[in-house]
Design brief:
The complex is a heterodimer of chains A (319) and B (283). Chain A has helices spanning 3-8, 29-59, 76-83, 85-116, 123-135, 138-149, 155-162, 176-203, 208-216, 221-249, 253-259, 270-279, 286-295, 297-318. Chain A is mainly α and 319 residues long. The radius of gyration of chain A is 25 Å and the shape is globular. With 283 residues, chain B is an all-alpha fold. Chain B has two domains: 5-58; 63-278, MetI-like fold (Orthogonal Bundle). Chain B has helices spanning 5-39, 42-45, 60-67, 73-104, 110-122, 125-138, 145-169, 173-181, 186-197, 199-215, 218-223, 232-240, 247-278. Chain B is globular and about 75 Å long. The chains are: A mainly alpha (319), B mainly alpha (283).
Chain lengths: 319, 283
């Protein structure tokens, strides 16, 4: 990137600062900048950087919750965890949960954004309503859905039976084959508004004359979506997908409050497994839990690199 | 395969309307159902055929929530408020400093630092909760409100820094330059010009930081043990795990907890929009 390009990619209007005659150019700028960053950097290093490294350190020792000492064991914990089926099953469930959830969120979010992007009375209210699940605390969302799924009050089953969609009640949370879909339903319910709103923000600046031009060229509704809307929102979509993938992959609260990883191990994803190893199962082995957590790190790194790529390519097209 | 434009338009309207009906039902019915449940009489909650309306709304569940001795709901509310406000205050102050530095000063590594803050926000609690537990235990900060304030800063600080950096960026630097030509110092120009103009952004950052802390579950779950520091979601979660579901009280608690979060969220949304479009400079 050329110098001029770098200037343009930095739209803060800081150019005035480089004028040598301006009083704005203080020699203390670097010192002041670093000084102002210190509290934030201390928080980030102390509460994110250091704990990340410490997680790796713990995973190389044997640290039990109730025991003070932690003897060094090298890679032993990794060997144990990686040789057990539990880890691989949990990884499989996490990938399944993430891929299916994100895919559904994208579809529902996109369809909703397309409708909200049209001009119709009451769409402001509809937009606010769509945001509601996203604004709710996860605990409230899960309590709500547990109530709907619950087999004594049975309202969801009641409605579905009345609508002739199912014949007999579904044991949403009690049966292994339904527990994961149920968790996905709740996760999608909370997470799709993020897509609807970000995609709406990406759709609304598309000028009408682009659609009109496509119409004149004989493009039908599907072609207009594929060749006008989709390319325009694609960069936003990619950023939203990566962010949502990170959050979904690491989803703990919704699954834990809904099923606690059960029944059996049907919804035990990696975050749930890490928590159980560290704070619930048998000897409460923090090191085992740390191994599970550390093993999710490569996934995070890949997603963050992807995100970085999408964000910087977006900034380039905007510059 | 182009349909006639008229038919296409008709198809679009019908499909869009059907989709919106589906989405709004899907979004609103669960919320309606839990709100309704919190006002139902307990006997109406135990029936086999669900009642979609109640003719005799009652506050029994809300009373039950506050009189439940093992729950100490008032204490939980107080804890949630103190901890969220503490984390919000701490992170907004830190983020104003860092945001100004990242948006207004030229120093080496500024761009990279900005990205680093954003990525720090993405590091999931799942990676951090075990080491943070050990660290907090070493400093005797388990079951302490101060401990939770510190831990919550791990996500509220990067979040606020990132938001405020963007916000400060959008305030034209010319305003500051004018103030400095008129004899303000740089910091003086920030205090008199930039911060007042950025107040909607600061308010929005504070609001979102508050809701992030207010809604948080995992850290509070592992780092608290008693009503000394437990927050609302933790107390209500212990409710779920009882053998007998007390749906009335649980719905009431979940709804009470959601009200500030939802109100603040929509308020913050408006601040962001108003702040970015309102603007102070004309032309």
């Amino acid at each position: 990137m050329t110098q001029a390009g770098a200037e343009r990619a930095d739209p803060g209007g800081t150019r005035g600062l480089t004028d040598p005659k301006s009083r704005l150019r203080l020699p203390t700028e670097t010192v002041l900048g670093i000084a102002l960053m210190i509290p934030a950097l201390a928080t980030i290093i102390g509460l994110i950087g250091y704990p990340t490294l410490y997680a790796i350190w713990i995973s190389l020792h044997t640290k039990l919750l109730a025991v003070r000492d932690m003897p060094f064991v090298g890679l032993e914990n990794y060997v144990t965890v990686l040789s057990q089926g539990n880890f691989w099953h949990a990884l499989g469930r996490t990938i399944y949960f993430t891929v299916v959830s994100v895919a559904i969120k994208v579809c529902i979010g996109m369809a909703t954004a397309l409708v909200l992007n049209e001009n119709w009375p009451g769409r402001g209210l509809a937009r606010a309503a769509v945001l509601l699940p996203w604004a709710l605390p996860p605990l409230t969302a899960v309590v709500t859905w547990r109530f709907l799924f619950n087999d004594t009050t049975n309202v969801l089953n009641y409605i579905l039976i009345k609508a002739h969609l199912i014949e007999k009640p579904i044991l949403w949370l009690a049966k292994a084959e339904y527990a994961m879909p149920s968790a996905i339903i709740v996760g999608v319910w909370q997470g799709f508004p993020f897509f609807a709103i970000t995609l709406l923000a990406g759709l609304s600046p598309i000028p009408d004359n682009l659609y009109d031009a496509a119409k004149v060229d004989g493009a039908g509704i599907i072609h207009r979506f594929l060749y006008v809307s989709l390319p325009a929102v694609f960069p936003v979509l990619m950023v939203a997908v990566t962010l949502s993938t990170i959050w979904t992959f690491n989803q703990f609260t919704v699954i834990w409050l809904l099923t606690q990883g059960g029944p059996g191990e049907a919804t035990t994803t990696l975050p749930i497994a890490a928590y159980q190893q560290a704070f619930v199962a048998g000897s409460k082995n923090l090191s085992r839990g740390a191994v599970y957590a550390v093993l999710t790190f490569p996934v995070l790194v890949i997603l963050v690199l992807l995100l970085n790529h999408f964000i910087s390519s977006r900034e380039e097209t905007e510059a | 395969m182009t349909l006639g434009l008229k038919w296409e338009r008709r198809f679009k309207v019908i499909a869009g309307a059907l989709w919106m009906i589906f989405i709004l039902t899907w979004v609103l019915f669960p919320t309606y159902w839990i709100a309704l449940a919190s006002f139902k009489h307990p006997k109406d909650l135990a029936v086999r055929i669900p009642l979609f309306w109640t003719t005799e709304p009652t506050l029994m569940s809300y009373k039950g929530l506050f009189t439940q001795p093992f729950l100490q709901f008032e204490r939980l509310t107080l804890n949630s408020l103190t901890i969220s406000l503490g984390a919000t205050f701490l992170s907004v102050v830190i983020a104003v400093f860092a945001g100004l530095a990242l948006a207004r000063l030229k120093f080496p590594g500024r761009q990279r630092l900005g990205m680093a803050v954003f990525f720090a926000y993405l590091v999931p609690p799942v990676l951090l909760f075990i080491p943070l537990y050990v660290v907090m235990a070493t400093f005797k900060l388990i079951d302490s409100r101060l401990g939770l304030v510190l831990v919550y800063s791990s996500f509220t600080v990067p979040f606020c820094v990132w938001m405020l950096r963007g916000y400060f960026h959008n305030i034209p630097v010319e305003l500051e330059e004018c103030a400095m030509i008129d004899g303000c110092t740089r910091v003086g120009a920030w205090v008199r010009i930039v911060l007042p103009l950025a107040s909607p952004g600061i308010a929005a950052a504070a609001i979102f930081a508050f809701t992030l802390a207010w809604n948080e579950f995992l850290y509070a779950y592992i780092l608290t043990e008693t009503a000394n520091a437990q927050t609302m979601p933790i107390g209500l979660a212990s409710f779920i795990q009882l053998d007998v579901y007390r749906w009335g009280e649980l719905s009431a608690g979940a709804l009470l907890m959601a009200i500030p979060a939802v109100v603040l969220y929509f308020l913050g949304q408006r601040f962001v929009v108003a702040g970015l479009t309102g603007g102070a400079v004309k032309g």
